[in-house]
Amino acid sequence: MIDFFVLTLFPDFFENFKNTSIIKKGLEKGVFSIIVKDIRDNAVNNYGQVDDVPFGGGAGMLLRPEPIFESFNDLNIPENDRKVIFFSPKGGRITGEYILNLTNLKNIVLICGHYEGVDQRVIDNLVDEEVSLGDFVLTGGELPAMVLIDAVVRQLEGVIKSRSLVDESFSNNLLEHRQWTRPSKYRNLSVPDILLSGHHKLINEYKLEDSIRETLKKRPDLIENGIFEEKIKLLIEKIKKEFL
Description:
Blueprint: E1 2-8, H1 13-18, H2 21-29, E2 32-38, E3 51-52, E4 62-63, H3 65-75, E5 82-93, H4 96-102, E6 107-111, H5 120-125, E7 129-132, H6 142-153, E8 185-186, E9 189-190, H7 200-218, H8 220-225, H9 230-240
Parallel strand pairs: 1-2, 1-6, 5-6, 5-7
Antiparallel strand pairs: 3-4, 8-9
């Protein structure tokens, strides 16, 4: 079981998140837990102040260290099997491999910054890793925290059927194949005949080849950097010729 601890100025953000879809089901099954801690519980004064102007000047406000350190201490989390993550545009890009590694932990602490970020002493003394969703800036760390939690828990046994994860994008260094559903014909647009054939071996071959084509078109870097078994290597080289 994984315990997620979220330090945030906006705990209400997580109420609907915890009561929706697979997150709700996983919580009800006890596969994981989400404990949300309001940083304002440890404000520096009766006015609820948690931020201040940065030393040396500059635009915006910075979260002070005291409320975050004290909120973290309130959690009373053991040091073993623990990772403290801070969301920042300076952080490393979150990948599928990174998400899978997190599933081996018992305690994951997510610090959600806001405004211009947090006092550097928080990063230097509490944070194990700074991470980012991509090369852009968000208002706060709440949305990335939800994204990370969702990505991790769907990999845990008992949340989603394991067979549903097999062909997902990035699961084998390829993007997922394209998919269709009923009706088989709509506005003169038809589903590929092979998918209606009932021939499972040919269907699986079609899906693999389509997965390779999708990857070559949309994320060729995954092909260039990926490690594949010999059968897939040969298919990749064959399909690459279609793009010449």
